[in-house]
Write a structure and sequence with these properties.
Strand content: 15-25%
Strand order of the largest sheet: 4-7-2-1-10-13-12
Number of strands: 29
CATH class of the largest domain: Mainly Beta
Largest sheet: 7 strands, mixed
CATH superfamily of the largest domain: tricorn interacting facor f3 domain
Mean pLDDT: 96
Helix content: 25-40%
Length: about 850
């Protein structure tokens, strides 16, 4: 069946010469372009993508042929340049002139604003074209497969900073304008074109093996660029070495954009970021904030090879771009700072993908994409986290060197061109002993993931796979599972790799075998289940951090799916209070805290005392004050424990301690561990009044770093006073909070069970304003909090609302959140009685 969103292949572009002339004052722009085309069949119409632009002129330059008309199909975002005469096959040049508006939509060529240190307002023009928004800036063949060379010229008002994908070839000055001509790009897709114009400044270029690297930022923020330069330098060197080939561009600018809908965008040579994901004061940031920035910088720079140099043919393959960049970023960050233990964190993030993939409404990683809305919907947890996790599973099974050699093979074969998923599998398979394509297609083309039951039976280990679903529905899906099991044999700890291709597999040994882990280092994308739960407590001393986390996370998931009684989970979790492993204890404290609201009122004090005693026991092991020898993760855990004791346990001593931390922070920000500062900001908000609220709002507006601004903004959702919640919600639709941030603030209030119903009332009453004001891709992300709702009446209201108000660009995500919401209600109904019986 014909996809009307796709362009015909009868006309192929190869070169764009584009001139853009922005007028930031009038918030408009005009442009002209010449597209070099190859016409393959005899035609009298050229169809290309354009939306929101007025076409002023069109002509086939070579033959002086002008169209009889230009028709527009707004539904499919195309125009057709129609001629009376036919064009024979051959090469032509299509000239177009056009104009459009600079709006606040955060897509296409759009307007962004910021205030400098003196309170002066500034406007900038910037771009965001992925997935299908280059067509909003210039008419083009806006599909990944139509790769071309781009020559960009920007005619800008005098004195404005100007940057694009490549280095500057020439600057011409007139009385009123500066005309910047940029070098030709490599052959690339339209969604990677970028240009930024405005009152910016840049760091001095740093030479990284011949590549000039700069950070571009708003005026007065150069003191926040050191960490970005450090990570950018590392990434360029690391990836050039890993991929075995140099960076494909002629320079690299990383640009902090004041208004940006996504996290960052991998435009070749011109990477754009949210300010909070590029600019930072390293001394005042938490470890998680620094890790997040390093992740994003490494992710985007990995794309320069995997995504920009080699690109998917169509948007169904975007998972490979994003999953691979996620995976490679983790590898790079782990090398950048091993103390961060990035692969352990990766296992924790994998849990969020499990959560979505446990639903009936999950999807395969790769699925058909028809419309631009479908393409937007691909940017979700399954694309990034599940995709990255299955790549890690494959790498660890085939071997890191073999995997790397396969990647180099893939890049060398397909440079400057487009690929499909199987091209990668085939390149890796050349260096592997397993059928990579067949194995990985079982993970990419099927939804869901397996539950793997592993049992020791004398001299044997028996492995059985089935589908893991929260609702425990049965299907017959089978995966080809690359596994590594850890066991004790003849008093030695060892491991074995195997490929589970059938439902059941038995491994025979020469003597009695003692199973330790069915998922060594937690590299496999599956939930492990063991025959007798209490048995694994004896093996805990042999497990590494990833395996311990996976063990308890799998047990919690089993409780959430109502297979394991909640009392069994609690007994096993509380048994681990002797273990001060930060990742493990963060998980346990989080799950214990989440159950508090489901305890009966007469039993709540007892339950709080259990969490309190558990937390204090942990604190006695790591200490209430940091010491010079402890890890960064231990500092992070201490802050989590303080926050738990203050907010969850309402412990007056720790409420006071965090108040004191907050006061110290206000006196001298660098004197306090940033992790503890973040906990203090949350705690003070939780117990705060209107005076505190005003102070927080002011700190969001005037924060010295992007991270400080975000901490205070999102902590507005912690204030318990309903009147202050009203202020927060109303502010989200005002000019006081940026459009890029407001949807996430609403998400935070929706996630807070005290505020969920009132927040939902606000959403229903202001839906038209929300849809009109917020970026399209951010709207579905507002609703992650509904999955925590346990009130059936409110759940039914929410479900009915989405039936009447579908969100095309995020309907799959909405469906998943709705299913998880009802699954959560089922979990509470099933386990609440057991929880309270356990407390008695």
């Amino acid at each position: 069946m014909e996809n009307k969103y796709r362009l015909p292949k009868m006309v192929i572009p190869s070169y764009y010469s584009i001139t853009i002339k922005p007028d930031l004052d009038s918030e408009k722009f005009s442009g002209s372009e010449t597209i070099t085309l190859t016409v393959k069949d005899k035609i009298n119409s050229i169809k290309l993508n354009s939306i929101g632009l007025k076409i002023d002129k069109a002509e086939i330059r070579d033959v002086g042929l002008k169209p009889i008309n230009i028709s527009e199909d707004k539904d499919h975002e195309t125009i057709s340049v129609n001629f009376k005469e036919y064009l024979n096959p051959g090469e032509y040049k299509l000239d177009l002139e056009f104009h459009g508006d600079l709006d606040n939509s955060l897509r296409g060529f759009y307007l962004s604003r910021y205030k400098d240190d003196k309170g002066v307002d500034h406007k900038i023009g910037t771009t965001q074209f992925e997935s299908t928004d280059a067509r909003r800036a210039f008419p083009c063949f806006d599909e990944p497969e139509f790769k071309s060379v781009f020559s960009i010229t920007l005619e800008v008002p005098k004195g404005l900073f100007t940057v694009s994908n490549t280095g500057i070839k020439n600057i011409t000055n007139t009385n009123s304008h500066d005309i910047y001509e940029f070098e030709d790009s490599i052959k690339m897709s339209t969604y990677l074109v970028a240009f930024v114009i405005g009152p910016f400044e840049a760091t001095d270029p740093v030479d990284v093996d011949g590549v000039p690297l700069r950070i571009v930022h708003a005026l007065g923020k150069s003191h926040l660029t050191d960490f970005a330069i450090e990570t950018g330098k590392f990434a360029l060197k690391y990836f050039s070495n890993y991929f075995g080939r140099p960076y494909p561009g002629d320079k690299l600018d990383m640009i902090a954009i004041p208004d940006f809908a996504s996290g960052a965008m991998e435009n070749l040579g011109c990477i754009t970021y949210r300010e909070a994901l590029l600019l930072v004061n390293k001394e005042e940031a938490t470890q998680s904030e620094l890790t997040r920035i390093a992740d994003v910088v490494m992710h985007e720079i990995a794309h320069m090879w995997f995504g920009d140099l080699v690109t998917m043919k169509w948007w169904n393959g975007i998972w490979l771009n994003e999953a691979f960049a996620t995976f490679m970023a983790t590898k790079a960050v782990d090398k950048f700072n091993p103390e961060w233990e990035r692969w352990v964190e990766f296992g924790i993030e994998k849990s969020a993908a499990f959560d979505v993939d446990s639903l009936k409404s999950t999807r395969p990683i790769e699925f058909d994409v028809i419309s631009p809305d479908d393409a937007t919907a691909m940017f979700d947890l399954l694309t990034y986290e599940k995709g990255g996790a299955v790549l890690r599973m494959l790498e660890q099974y085939v071997g890191e060197e073999q995997f790397r050699d396969g990647i180099r093979n893939y890049l060398n074969k397909h440079e400057f061109s487009n690929t499909e998923t199987e091209d990668l599998w085939d390149s890796i398979e050349e260096f592997s002993s397993i059928p990579v394509r067949e194995t990985m297609n079982s993970w990419i083309l099927q939804p869901g993931f397996p539950r793997v039951l592993i049992q020791s039976e004398g001299n044997d280990i028996k492995i059985t796979q089935s589908t893991f679903r929260y609702d425990n529905s049965v299907d017959k899906t089978l995966w080809k599972i690359p596994m590594e099991i850890k066991y004790e044999l003849d008093s030695e700890i060892t491991s074995k790799k195997l490929l589970l291709e059938d439902k059941i597999k038995k491994i025979e040994f020469n003597s009695k075998v003692n199973l330790i882990s069915g998922n060594s280092s937690s590299n496999g994308f599956y939930r492990s289940e063991y025959g007798i739960v209490k048995d694994f407590l004896n093996e805990i001393k042999h497990l590494n951090k990833s395996e311990k986390f996976s063990l308890i996370d799998d047990l919690w998931a089993s409780a959430v799916s109502c297979i394991t009684p909640i009392d069994r989970y609690l007994d096993n979790a509380l048994y681990l209070k002797q273990d001060a492993d930060p990742e493990l204890q963060s998980l346990i404290l989080s799950t214990l805290s989440s159950l508090k609201r489901h305890t009966n009122e007469d039993l709540k004090p007892k339950y709080i005392s259990i969490i309190e005693n558990y937390s204090l026991d942990l604190l006695s092991k790591i200490g209430t004050e940091p010491n010079g020898k402890e890890s960064l993760k231990t500092k992070e855990l201490r802050a989590i424990i303080f926050r738990t004791l203050s907010i969850v346990c309402e412990n007056n001593e720790y409420i006071d301690k965090l108040n004191e931390v907050y006061n110290q922070y206000n006196s001298n920000k660098t004197s306090i561990d940033p992790n503890m500062t973040a906990s203090a900001i949350a705690s003070v908000a939780h117990y705060g009044n209107e005076k505190t609220y005003k102070e927080y709002f002011s700190k969001y507006a005037d924060g010295e770093t992007p991270q400080e601004k975000m901490r205070f903004l999102y902590s507005l959702a912690e204030f318990r006073d309903p009147k202050l919640l009203d202020k927060t919600l109303n502010s989200s639709l005002s000019e006081d909070i940026k459009n890029q941030d407001a949807p996430y603030l609403i998400a935070y209030t929706l996630r807070n069970y005290r505020h969920s119903e009132k927040t939902w009332d606000f959403i229903e009453n202001n839906w038209a304003k929300i849809v009109n004001k917020f970026p399209d891709n951010a709207v579905p992300r507002m609703f992650g909090g509904i999955k925590l709702i346990s009130d059936n009446k409110l759940a039914n209201r929410i479900n009915l609302f989405f039936k009447n108000n579908p969100i095309p660009q995020g309907q799959k995500t909405i469906d998943q959140n709705l299913e998880k919401m009802y699954q959560n209600i089922n979990f509470v109904n099933h386990q609440k009685g057991k929880l309270n019986d356990w407390l008695k």
